[in-house]
Specification:
Rossmann fold, globular
């Protein structure tokens, strides 16, 4: 570890001296110190660093901007943001932009600081975070399967970074997108993994029953309460509690949840004794809680408490690149005899990849399970797919009709995939990117015009009509935009 080079930038001299002593005495590492963005630039311009600790609020620059400068100059350097509690949201945003982690000031929890720095040095040593095979095994064990260019990768990376933090997480997404799976994954990646994980659906119970489930009740507190009962806030103490469908909780329950989030204290129903809990809260919803706040259906102060970190899980139709690996995973999960094989035919897979999946991953899982049961040999053809999939896609307009392709969604899928790749490239040359995109747009236009002319026996008026443009525009695109000189 002594070979690592560390940079500390904080305008409080005491912080710099603390880390100089901390790293030298405990880890045998020499530290470079700076108190401003100007000094930081001078240091990382002349030296390489493996790790940088940056205060979020410096006198001449904010920490996130400085972090981006460091990452552009030294892509291999990991950055830890130092922050006060009041700026936790900004620190989490820094993690979205590439920070390895953040630490709270003042540094009262030295064990927590040791843990973060040990993880950072381990990551730097391997440049893989968890050992890759271990990380992939953990993800796969929870059914989190994706393609290499999936936008889910960024969400998982942030989920893993905040797993050890005692901050609330809000999981947003349509029904069936895997919100509970993501919650369990966050729990598994945290130091609470050996403690209970409990999920409770806030929309499945009446207000009275939900209150009892959450906080417990005393004997005789209501009709039918024949014994004292602990609630999930007690049972999940030191663990993780998933409040699913939080948007369906009544105003009274919302108020009680707010009190627990603010103080960590609650009362059993029918009791006057204060109980404390150290539980990590993850909330999930398929509703837009911001709209619910505007409609006076959800408390704004509760949303503020829940939405410290929000992870939006994309519907399956917005990440079609994941359908094939998910199918392979669910096929394997449903094979009773693991020595046998089962694969979808190319035709069946084409239907699966073209379907809209309104039920998302949950629907895909059920469809694959059905196909495995219905197969007669190793191959699963169209006959193994539900009629709603085959029938819906078969009834689409024939090829050649402008209605058989949703251009906007197709371009959006391509754009999402491209963005996922671009974000992993440090220092993208934006003017060059714009030039390339414009050049490719011209080439696509030329190919479409040539195809339209060929299909209309070189009749420019008919070709223009098929492309839904005027003949003059077709001539301009073909003769002017199509020039390469």
């Amino acid at each position: 570890m002594s070979t690592h080079r560390v940079l500390v930038i904080d305008d409080e001299i005491e912080v710099g001296m603390f880390f100089k002593h901390y790293f030298r005495e405990i880890h045998g590492i020499t530290v470079a110190l700076g108190t401003s963005g100007k000094e930081a630039r001078q240091l990382f311009a002349s030296s390489n660093f493996d790790l940088a600790l940056i205060d979020l609020r410096l006198s001449d620059i904010d920490g996130i901007t400085l972090m981006r400068e460091i990452k552009q100059r030294l892509p291999q350097c990991e950055v830890i943001i130092m922050t006060g509690y009041s700026t936790i949201r900004s620190a989490v945003d820094a993690m979205r932009y590439g920070a390895f982690d953040y630490v709270d000031k003042p540094f009262e929890d030295l064990k927590g600081l040791d843990h973060i720095l040990d993880r950072a040095f381990s990551y730097i040593q391997s440049k893989k975070g968890f050992v890759r095979s271990e990380l992939e095994a953990l993800q796969t064990s929870y059914g989190i399967v994706m393609n290499e260019d999936s936008p889910l990768k960024e969400i998982l990376d942030l989920a893993r970074k905040i797993a050890d933090k005692k901050i609330t997480v809000l999981l947003e997404g349509e029904t069936g997108t895997g919100k509970e799976v993501m919650a369990r994954y966050i729990h598994a990646c945290s130091h609470r993994s050996g403690r209970p994980f409990i999920a409770i659906n806030c929309g499945a119970l009446s207000e009275t029953l939900l209150e009892s489930e959450l906080f417990g009740h005393e004997k005789g507190s209501f009709t039918g309460a024949t014994t004292r009962r602990r609630g999930v806030f007690e049972i999940a103490n030191s663990g993780t509690l998933l409040l699913d469908e939080i948007g369906d909780a009544s105003p009274a329950i919302q108020l009680k949840l707010l009190r627990v989030l603010e103080s960590g204290e609650f009362y059993r129903v029918g009791s006057e004794s204060v109980l404390k809990t150290d539980v990590r809260i993850i909330a999930a919803t398929n509703r837009n809680l911001r709209e619910a706040v505007e409609d006076k259906l959800f408390r704004e102060d509760l949303l503020y408490r829940l939405d410290v970190v929000s992870l939006k899980l994309l519907p399956l139709r917005e990440r079609p690149m994941d359908i094939l690996p998910l199918c392979r995973y669910y096929v394997n999960q449903n094979l009773n005899d693991k020595t046998k094989e089962a694969v979808f035919s190319k035709e069946a897979m084409a239907f699966l990849q073209s379907y809209d999946w309104p039920g998302n991953i949950r629907e895909l899982s059920n469809v694959v399970a059905r196909a495995v049961l219905m197969r007669e040999g190793n191959e699963m053809g169209i006959g193994c797919l539900p009629e709603r999939i085959v029938g819906e896609l078969s009834e689409q307009p024939a090829a050649g009709s402008n209605k058989d392709i949703d251009l906007e969604s197709s371009i959006a899928e391509w754009s999402q995939s491209l963005m996922g790749k671009l974000r992993r490239i440090p220092g993208v040359n934006l003017p060059e990117l714009i030039r390339i995109l414009e050049d490719q747009t011209c080439k696509i236009s030329q190919v479409l015009i040539e195809d339209a002319l060929a299909a209309s026996d070189n009749d420019p008026n008919k070709a223009a009509e098929n492309l839904q443009i005027k003949p003059r525009a077709l001539r301009y695109l073909k003769n002017e935009k199509g020039r390469t000189d």
